[in-house]
Amino acid sequence: MPAYDGESLVKFEAWVRGTLNKPFYAVGPLLPSEYGTAQISLPIASLGDDSEIKSFLGSMKLKHGNKSMLFISFGTLFWPKVQDQLEDLVDTLIEEQFPFLLCHAAPSALLPAALLEKLKISGIGMASRWAPQQSILTHPATGWFLTHCGHGGITEALASGIPMICWPFMGDQPIAAMHLLHNLNVAFHLLQVRTGTGLQPLYGGEVPVGTRVAMCAEFKQTLKDCRGEVGNEKRRNAERMRVELASAWVVGGSSAQAIEEFMATRLT
């Protein structure tokens, strides 16, 4: 996706076409045709709590306004290894009265009964083992996405114009987080949740403390920034990305042209 990959895609294309002498077709994002221009409807039938989720989203929009809610999802595989981290995040969200929807789909994501009861009593939080991510990200109530930085989630968030809070775990996730933070400026990055070798000094000079106090302070400051001018700037950048990603598929757009070029080689 040229809007997301930028100069790296340009260089890669030059290498493929020049050095390898091969054709190159950059196509993306691969999402429903109406994505980014309309809300994706909740599934009519599913295995999850879709009716409860729909009701919760509507309630948060009514009580707190558009773009007020944080959607939290680490995908179907990842989850914080230290349970205190998740519980401290929930406590901070409740303390700051920041509405949130927590998806805990990973097998290791076991939420204590006391935590679930706390969510229920709070009136601003909900937890679900299943969540229709595209529907949630395109809902008017959703304003932020806390993610492990999987490529699918990043694509869906940016195509919805939703800025992110990055909590990467492994693989290419930390690299993606840095790209979102430094190159695109559409995200915040949580440092104090790091553990083990992740506590080593970062290339940019930051040194994670890794204590519970530092982590809670970072949670609180990040939520404050989400609601301030720093967050507004990241939202504007995310909205610009949404427009650019959508334009790739209009007539004459980069992805539309790439598909036409590819099909021309197969039909002649």
Quick structural overview:
The protein has 268 residues and is of the alpha/beta class.
General description of the model:
With 268 residues, the protein is of the alpha/beta class. It has a single domain (48-251), classed as Glycogen Phosphorylase B (Rossmann fold), CATH 3.40.50. 47% of the residues lie in helices and 9% in strands. It contains eleven helices and six strands. The protein has helices spanning 2-5, 7-18, 50-64, 83-95, 113-122, 133-137, 151-159, 173-183, 212-226, 229-247, 254-267, and strands at residues 69-73, 100-103, 125-128, 142-147, 164-166, 187-189. Strand 1 (69-73), helix 4 and strand 2 form a beta-alpha-beta unit. The longest helix has 19 residues, at 229-247. The model has no long low-confidence stretch (mean pLDDT 92).
Major sheet summary line? 6 strands, parallel
Broad structural category = alpha/beta
Named at the architecture level, the CATH assignment is: 3-Layer(aba) Sandwich
Unreliable sequence segments: none
| DSSP strand content | 5-15%
- Give the overall shape: globular
What is the third-level CATH name, the topology? Rossmann fold
**What is the number of strand segments?**
6
Mean pLDDT: 92
The total tally of domains equals 1
Report the CATH C-level class: Alpha Beta
Distance between the termini: 26 Å
Keywords summarizing the entry:
268 residues; alpha/beta; Rossmann fold; six-stranded parallel sheet; 6 strands; 47% helix; globular; UDP_glucos_trans; transferase
